[in-house]
Amino acid sequence: MNIPVEGFMYPNEVELQWSILIVLYPFITGLVAGAFILASLERVFRVEAVKPTYRLALLTALSFLLVAPLPLQLHLGHPERSLEMYLTPHRSSAMAMFGFVYLWYLMAVLLLEIWLDFRLDIVIKSQTTTRVTRLIYRALTLGSDNISERSLHIDERLGYFITVIGIPSAFLLHGYVGFIFGSIKANPWWSSPLMPIVFIFSAMVSGIAAVMLLYMVTTRLRGRDIDIRCLDKIAQYLFYIFMIDFSLEMLDLLQRVYEADESFRSLDFMVHTRLWTSQVIIQILIGTVTPITLLGLTQILKLTEAARKRIYALAGCLTVIGIFAMRWNVVIGGQLFSKSFLGYTTYKMAFATREGLLTAIALLILPFIILSVLVKLLPPWPDAGPVPAPGAIEPRNQLTPVLRG
Amino acid sequence: MFKDVEHLVRLAAVMLIALVAFVVLRAAVVPRSFGQYGHYRGAAIAEVAARPIAFAGHDTCEACHTDVVDQKKQGRHIVLSCEACHGALARHADNPASVTPPKLDTAVLCARCHEANSAKPKASPQVVTADHSGGLACDTCHQPHRPKIDTQPATKPATEARK
Lengths: 405, 163
Prior knowledge:
- The structure holds two protein chains of two kinds.
- Chain A is mostly helical.
- Chain A has 14 helices and two strands, in the order βαααααααααααααβα.
- Chain A has helices spanning 20-43, 54-67, 70-76, 84-87, 94-128, 131-141, 149-182, 195-221, 228-259, 264-272, 276-300, 305-331, 333-336, 357-377; strands at residues 6-7, 343-344.
- Chain A has a two-stranded antiparallel sheet.
- By secondary structure, chain B is mostly helical.
- Chain B has three domains: 2-50; 53-102, no CATH class; 103-163, no CATH class.
- Chain B is 45% helix and 0% strand.
- The model of chain B has no long low-confidence stretch (mean pLDDT 89).
- The chains are: A mainly alpha, B mainly alpha.
- At the A-B interface, helix 5 and helix 7 of A face helix 1 of B.
């Protein structure tokens, strides 16, 4: 493959080693962390307005988390070797230790919290469904069908505790992804102590926007009315966190511009040429300034409900596109310039290959397929609460009307 | 009281079983010598050492091909080891009569080092082979052991490996 090169490139820099799949990796983990932070707003910070999205946010986080390692597996090949990361851990490898961060977040936080939160539904479904689904639910109950008031209260307290642990864990998960890039001191585009912090805030932005969009779409698909109070609150948080995220990115830029180290001219040239469209136009103008302005308008102006919904939908879509562009510019941008600071290469994306566009699209669709299965298995809708069939539940397992909050 | 936390006890049991399964799996699949010297299988060193030697080393080559050494001494390729171009030839050194070194395609071999690339040191002779030779084998004009054309020998060394 003939790759257009400009100026002076070292031979090993001509071809990009990290493809679009490595762009997906921080993008997907960011959605996980962001969705979990949104869920924690209700659980820990008692923001009651966002309650309709709580369970959806948890399932969204799980769906994306299950897909998060796949881009890395596809990129590296030999997925059977990934288990060795746990069997013989290499403590000096930042990337290898991500395996433990991932496992902790999946097993100790997300699965546990989902199980505790949905246990009541699982037990009821294990007694009201038939055949294979019944077996699945019975397996999920772990053989205990106790849903007494006290046991559910214990679940609630334990769930709260796990969410409290989950918040720093979500920060760790995505902060760690930022750290992996930020700690590469040989690459001035990545090497920045601000990288983990910028990644965390951008993760929150993308996750909240994604869950907001999912809530709007799924509610519409179910033919129900969108809880505008919930939507307003999510948009408000999205606006605040986006402002912090944008400020941090601008601070990073300011630092780079003022410091103007030996790499600055080269990176500046790259932003003005090869990254102009993806960074300045898509990431900053379309994906950041526009949604912040739109969300800001909804905070200032008194708009109708319909107008607000449309603005939230548009702002949400632009936000997700903007954060994807941010990941693209970090991963791809960091490989377009030469270490000599005198040359630039080009990323030629393949189409139907292991690391091509088609694979990337499939990986982006996969979490939604997983989510649709999870939603079928564990309906997260506030209005689809457990309604036991008469006589289906034993007397000691009578439901309590208010289980949480 | 226990009934209300029974599900949590069961959960803890599942986690414990998973942990024990992991420990058992680890003990079963991680090689015993792993970590003996570093983050690798210690026994691998003995296994690698036991493999048959593939390279003879230039001292062995020079013991027989003295005329080639004399030619190399007059050119810049004196710094190159014989097997850098000719490949691993321990089997030929052990049995010169029956094991013949493979034929080399100089059009490909020479380009590996001499194809023009701006990242290479300026002191290294570089050509754009398509313009320079148009696909002709390099040894049509150059004698690889003493490649500069104005110092080319009239005849090939008697013990030079067959092309």
